[in-house]
């Protein structure tokens, strides 16, 4: 079973998502964030569940879809998962992941 950690950047994105949705519906915002966390927990037993992000870094970066959001994560040694960010599908994640 893999361990999952969330980067500060990923936590920041979750807060942004929550704040945006909560402007109209705080309960829905909490539900979306909880659902994103639950979806990410699936990676504990199946780290390769998401599709591989096509990038030349050589790192095993993957994307797991949840509704309009993309949970982007890095697999390290197949036993450690680092959630890099949670991005709305309309965003160009290239500018956030490539540095």
Describe the structure.
- InterPro entries: RelE/ParE_toxin, RelE/ParE_toxin_dom_sf, TA_system_RelE-like_toxin.
- It comes from hydrothermal vent metagenome.
- Keywords: Toxin-antitoxin system.
- This is Death on curing protein, Doc toxin.
- The radius of gyration is 13 Å and the shape is globular.
- The relative contact order is 0.21.
- It has three helices and five strands.
- The mean pLDDT is 89.
- α1 packs antiparallel against α2.
- It has a five-stranded mixed sheet.
- β3 and β4 form a beta hairpin.
- By secondary structure, it is α+β, with helices and mostly antiparallel strands.
- The protein has one domain: YaeB-like fold, CATH 3.30.2310.
The name of the CATH architecture is 2-Layer Sandwich
Question: What's the helical proportion of residues?
Answer: 25-40%
Inertia-based shape: globular
Compute the average pLDDT.
89
Q: Can you tell me the number of structural domains? A: 1
Please tally the helical runs, counting DSSP H or I stretches of 4 or more residues: 3
Q: What is the element string, with H for helices and E for strands?
A: EHHEEEEH
Strand order of the largest sheet: 1-5-4-3-2
What is the CA–CA distance across the termini? 30 Å
Which percent range describes the beta-strand content? 25-35%
Largest sheet: 5 strands, mixed
Low-confidence stretches: none
Our Rg estimate from Cα atoms comes to 13 Å
The CATH topology comes to YaeB-like fold
- What's the CATH first level? Alpha Beta
Organism: hydrothermal vent metagenome
Family: Belongs to the RelE toxin family.
InterPro entries: RelE/ParE_toxin, RelE/ParE_toxin_dom_sf, TA_system_RelE-like_toxin
Keywords: Toxin-antitoxin system
């Amino acid at each position: 079973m893999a361990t999952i950690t969330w980067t500060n950047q990923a936590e920041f994105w979750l807060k942004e998502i929550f704040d945006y949705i909560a402007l109209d519906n705080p309960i829905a915002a909490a539900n979306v964030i909880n659902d994103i966390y639950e979806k990410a927990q699936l990676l504990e037993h199946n780290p390769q569940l998401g599709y591989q992000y096509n990038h030349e870094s050589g790192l095993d970066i993957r994307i797991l879809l949840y509704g309009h959001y993309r949970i982007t994560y890095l697999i390290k040694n197949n036993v450690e998962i680092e959630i890099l960010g949670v991005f709305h599908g309309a965003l160009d994640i290239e500018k956030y992941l490539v540095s």
